[in-house]
């Protein structure tokens, strides 16, 4: 596995170096890498999505779940530096898990308090790699981006600072189902819409793809967030013809289908990642979007914005909380994540970690 710079996601030509060849510190010297970085493997994950798509909530929950997965697999999990430990605790863990509150939006990178300018870096232990099974320490690096930084206004001035997207192993693009007009109409009066961002997810995705240009093709996890919101379709009375033109759809039957993969959790922590399960879920999510006349995102993924090289992507469905929050607090029933690890486990599977 490649040794990468955690700040730019670029591969480091000298994997035994203790400093980044791409970033300078406050004294103009090559920036030091976290302890144990030399010769390590780096898995780089970038978060993207429109404002209020749930990126911060997802990161808060999925890092907890990743820790549980790593420990279940017999390895260790720890923050790789003091910044990661402090930032995760102050901005994710305490507000959500201790105060049971909803996380505020990620601040734009231009703001002085934009903590996400630095990555969150986690040491997940050493793993056998290569034909000889030599042990290699592996780090997982997360970078979050405010929805405002991917919106059209002033985007060109931020393009260079977003170049790390092109070097990521995986980009998790979250989109809120309530941003789809058809879903919002169907659920009107049953789900709060005050947190829905004004930015079109398709525009945000288009800006992300423009950063990738004609040749960079990280894997994109096109992820329907807040899936518990969409599951509310099972509980409301809708006419059977309510769907895309020419489609007769009984939404209560569709969302109440207990045989569908979106009605079940993903792979067990102590087992391998189930590719067959994911293949079915991918097809189901694409079908749901088609029925809801919300195919612009998948259309963009099928036809490259620049160049001819196809995008690498798959569809996922997650819910960080398991239920919609109310009055700035999470549900009294607590936090019940649904399939949040699927995108991460998909990445780990193809990086041959745990499998």
The computed structural class is: alpha/beta
- The end-to-end distance, rounded to whole angstroms, is 15 Å
Query: If helices are DSSP runs of H or I spanning 4 or more residues, what is the number of helices?
Result: 10
Tell me the name of the CATH class. Answer: Alpha Beta
Unreliable spans:
none
Question: CATH homologous superfamily name?
Answer: P-loop containing nucleotide triphosphate hydrolases
| Shape call | globular
- The portion of residues forming beta strands comes to 15-25%
What is the tally of beta strands? 9
Order of helices and strands, N to C?
EEEHEHEEHEHHEHHHHEH
CATH architecture title = 3-Layer(aba) Sandwich
Number of domains: 1
On the 0-100 scale, what is the average pLDDT? 88
Radius of gyration: 20 Å
Largest beta-sheet characterization: 7 strands, mixed
Level of helix content? 25-40%
For this structure, the CATH topology is Rossmann fold
Strand order of the largest sheet: 4-5-6-3-7-8-9
